[in-house]
Amino acid sequence: MNRAATPSPPRILPLAFAGLIVIYLTGYLAWYGGTPLGRYPVLDDREILVLAKQIASGTLPAEAFYRAPGYPALLALPLLSGLDPIALPWIARLINALGHLTSTWLVWSTAGYLWPRARAQYAAAALVGFNPVLLHFCGDALDITLGITLMLAGVHAIVRELTLRTSARAPWLTASAYLGLAALVRPQLLALLAALPVIAATSTSARGRNAFASLLPALLVLMVLGAVNYRLAGDFRLLPWQGAYNFWAANRPGAHGRYFEQSIPINSVDEAANTARLESEILYRQSHPAAPDDYRAATAYWQTRTLDSIRAAPVAWLTLLAHKAYYLANNVEQYNNKTYAFHKQRSPWLRWNPLCWSLLFSLGAAGAIRGWQVAGLRALVVCGMAYAGGALLYFVSDRFRVPLVPLLALSAGGVFTATPWPRAVAAGMVGFVALLVSSIPIPEREQTKTVIQDYMALARASSQLGEAREAVGYAELAHRVDPTRPAALALLCVTRFNAWLHAENAALTDRVLESWRDACAPVASFSPAAKRIVGYIEWRAGRSDNAERLWRELVVSGGEERDTTQAWLLLTGLSSAAQLSAITERARDTLTPPMLFALALRGDDAAADLLVTRYSVPRRDAEFSALKRLFDPRH
Asked: Would you say residue 546 lies in a domain?
């Protein structure tokens, strides 16, 4: 046949399609990088960034990894090459962007093995490439995007083998290796490894011996983590130990299982602190007051307690699982550090995006019926069921559910292929039922109750960025949502104080002091920062004895406010002669920044010279200006 008579498919269409995804992704990430949370990550993002710095600097604690180290280890590589840590959030976004684009290509390629029509490939890839939930996670230094990419690489190897039927062992070993790496990044993806031997054993293209042999690469990958943990702490642990308490928190009596929710108040100014870990340590200490600190014993305790609780009330636990299944299938994206619907509405790039879980769920269900005769699709269903089962054992929040999105997108491609009408009708009915089930409304209060956390996160980030007015605005919005929340009131206390401190022309009037007292006094016993500010209010009012008492309690407690409080005692002249002598006799390079600034303000030349070598002129000027506003009697 004449070559000219066989037209090649136009290449401009896939290039234009890919270009649109790149533009959309780039636009969203550029916008998000300019937001407070994009410029100053908090919560899990901050924890992962700190872990990356510890890996790069070799300052890891002498314990097995609490959370999966795969993604932080990847972030540590640029730091080892000399990258300024301040650029790490943008490096994380770049890694996530490459991961998202790779995931989209993997879905495109996998769909090509599943479905005979190119339009099915375009549909599946579009449902992933333009998916607003996947994009939402790309903006933060979170491990889920990379985990999904590795998962899809394993799924691609499985579907390709089931389509080509080479009867080779290599594809199964490849899939196992990728899924093992995915578990090293995101441990919840370990559930897919349970599906791998089932698929291999039931496939006509694989011999039975491949079923268990295919798990070897994943086991070797996890043994690497075990070896690292053994070197760090003498603990050959194949998985992080974060899951033990999460298992309890997600299944304890009274839990709703949608997302982690604190059962006791946690107060920490360390934005990298994991509140679930802090809570688990406090509760373990309460139940074992005489036991030594040992995360191994605590891990075993939480696992045993969870299993005992399930055995004691199996019907209640099964009811909880049923509720989780309902929320897993529901269109609402459950909270996980951020409320997705809240942040989607804030984004001009995501706000109008119509893609949602219900659409994917209904299309995926319909596609599964239309293409059930395809071996690769049946393998996808097994993978999806295995992952969903694993999610039900823990939480069903959006970050736990999102790996199902690309699997549903691959199945949805079947909707865009030709199918005999009886099967098409059945697929349409199943898809319609899935749409109805997933669209059952959830009470508005349950959808918005976590918004207070979003306002508080924005307030903290804005405060750290020096945007005091914006921080107060977000803190007031958080307080308006729940005026009884101690953490919101403590945040309002600190942001109001900082806003005055950094506003050069603001007078310290009685009204200002009263607004501080209203916010700070009720939570002074809960928040050390609020207690320090209450002490300042007392000092300003001439009640130095009260101020000294409050500040000395903070110093004795040895918490995060100790150094700043010591500096305030020094600048107000409330330090005793013995304390002042102990401070002035110490070597200046052993003092913390608050003490150095306080001594320099008192005329200590050695402290002033050391500050010159450590900080820029704008930083020094800002700190000295703040201290003068606080302790200069003319203000």
From this structure: no
Tally DSSP H helices, then E strands, for the chain: 34, 0
Structure tokens at 106: 């993997």
Give just the sign of the alpha carbon dihedral 346, 349, 352, 353: negative
Q: Are residues 217 and 253 in the same domain?
A: no
Tell me the DSSP string of 249-318.
Answer: HHHSTT---SS---SS----S-TT--HHHHHHHHHHHHH-TTSPP-HHHHHHHHHHHHHHHHHH-HHHHH
Q: Would the pTM count as exceeding 0.85?
A: yes
Q: What is the pLDDT of residues 200-227, one digit of tens each?
A: 888 765 556 667 777 899 999 999 999 9
Contact 158, 171 (CB under 8 A): yes
Of 157, 141, 139, 177, give the one whose Cα is nearest residue 31: 139
The CA distance from 590 to 482, in Å, is 43
Same domain, 70 and 219: yes
Taking residues 20-30, what's their average pLDDT?
A: 97
- Measured CA to CA, the distance from residue 399 to residue 146 in angstroms comes to 12
State whether the Cα torsion 340-346-350-355 is positive or negative.
positive
Which residues 6+ apart lie within 8 Å of 489 measured at CB?
479, 483, 519, 522, 523
Q: What is the pLDDT of residue 556?
A: 86
Q: What confidence category does residue 316 fall into, taking pLDDT thresholds of 50, 70 and 90? A: very high
> Do 139 and 182 reside in the same domain of the chain?
yes
**pLDDT at residue 591 is higher than 50:** yes
CA distance 384 to 406: 10
Whether 206 is in a domain gets the answer: yes
Do 130 and 111 share a structural domain? yes
| pLDDT, tens digit, 9 for 90 and up, residues 504-545 | 777 888 898 999 999 999 999 888 999 999 999 999 989 999
Eight-class DSSP state of 338: B
Q: Is pLDDT larger for residue 273 or for residue 380?
A: 380
Domain of 190 in residue numbering reads as: 12-236+344-355
Are 153 and 298 contained in the same domain? Answer: no
| 559 in a structural domain | no
Distance CA 456, CA 464 (A): 12
SS3 312: helix
Would you say residue 188 lies in a domain?
yes
Region 70-88: what's the mean pLDDT? 93
What is the 8-class DSSP label of residue 173?
A: H
Last residue of a domain, which of 312, 336, 355? 355
Both 101 and 39 in a single domain? yes
Query: Residue 3: pLDDT band by 50, 70, 90 thresholds?
Result: very low
**One domain for residues 89 and 22:** yes
Same domain, 97 and 37: yes
Helix/strand/coil percent split, the chain, to 5: 70, 0, 30
Q: Which of 283, 292, 239 is nearest to 263 (CA)?
A: 283
* pLDDT band, residue 269 (cuts 50/70/90): low
**H or E element in which residue 483 lies:** none
Structurally, the chain folds into a number of domains equal to 2
The reported pLDDT for the residue numbered 5 is 47
